[in-house]
Design goal:
Elements: H1 2-5, H2 11-19, E1 29-31, H3 36-39, H4 42-45, E2 52-54, H5 67-81, E3 87-91, H6 98-107, E4 111-117, H7 123-128, E5 131-135, H8 138-155, H9 168-179, H10 183-196, E6 199-205, E7 211-217, H11 219-224, H12 239-244
Parallel strand pairs: 1-2, 3-4, 4-5
Antiparallel strand pairs: 6-7
Helix pairs in contact: 8-9, 8-10, 9-10
Length: 246
């Protein structure tokens, strides 16, 4: 998600969504947490589970990432040790997991639900699982960008400006620079917010031939449509960017 969408995983939100459908018995997280980006996620993972499995390969000679192997081993062990578990939910898009998913569904009679980063799901894995979901959804992306834009508008100091609200161009530029996102992407998101009524855009006259558009957040429209913006700034910054700014 970092590389494709410049978004951070909203782990707690995912847990809450899954909990609406399933009685969650256990949540395990596997990763090489020596990676700075992954290590930055540990506090948010601990909000939903303390079952964090470090998969770092400490061999000085053999650099293979063991995460998949360790995950597969744990899945097979769980299938044998917990026959009462009916559903497995696996976050991966890797086709290497198609064999274990086929084993769970065909040999063990389990249902297997796959969650994968959008456009990163193996066709073979999709064909053998019970159901597949891709993240982030379009709504996830929209809400994240909306949150970045709204946060910038709220925090912009307008005391020295001519108008009480910041300009559209100022907000788009500041969000693009701060979060490392393409300016056109930010502008498209802001235009989408305005189209839905989540931004109030005001045209202001500068001179007889020039006008400037200023923007403010329409909090009541967001609330009435049930759009909950992300308030925790940690979810809006990718780890590398966050680290660089400390």
């Amino acid at each position: 998600m970092y590389k494709r969408y410049s978004l951070r995983p909203r782990v707690r939100q995912w847990r809450d969504t899954i909990a609406e459908k399933f009685d969650i018995k256990e949540m395990l997280f596997f990763a090489d947490f020596s990676n700075p980006g992954m290590r930055a996620e540990i506090p948010r993972i601990r909000e939903v589970s303390n079952l964090i499995i470090e998969t770092q390969n400490t061999s000085p000679h053999y650099k293979k990432d063991f995460t998949d192997f360790i995950m597969l081993d744990n899945i097979y062990q769980k299938a044998f040790s917990s026959p009462d578990v009916d559903n497995f939910i696996i976050f991966t898009g890797d086709g290497h997991f198609s064999s274990v998913v086929r084993f769970l569904t065909q040999n063990c009679g389990k249902k297997v639900y796959i969650y994968s980063v959008a456009d990163g799901l193996s066709g073979l894995l999709r064909s053998v699982c019970t159901k597949a979901y891709e993240l982030p959804t379009e709504r996830d992306i929209d809400v994240t960008y909306y949150s970045m834009i709204a946060r910038q508008i709220r925090q912009t100091d307008t005391t020295g400006l001519r108008f009480p609200d910041p300009s559209f161009a100022m907000v788009a530029g500041a969000v693009s620079e701060y979060y490392g996102i393409d300016r056109e992407t930010v502008k498209d998101a802001a235009n989408k917010m305005a189209k839905h009524g989540y931004l109030t855009v005001t045209s202001n006259k500068l001179s007889s031939s020039k006008r400037i558009s200023t923007v403010s957040v329409n909090e009541s429209k967001l609330a009435s449509d049930g759009v909950e913006l992300i308030e925790d700034p940690a979810y809006l910054m990718i780890p590398k960017k966050n680290t660089d700014q400390k």
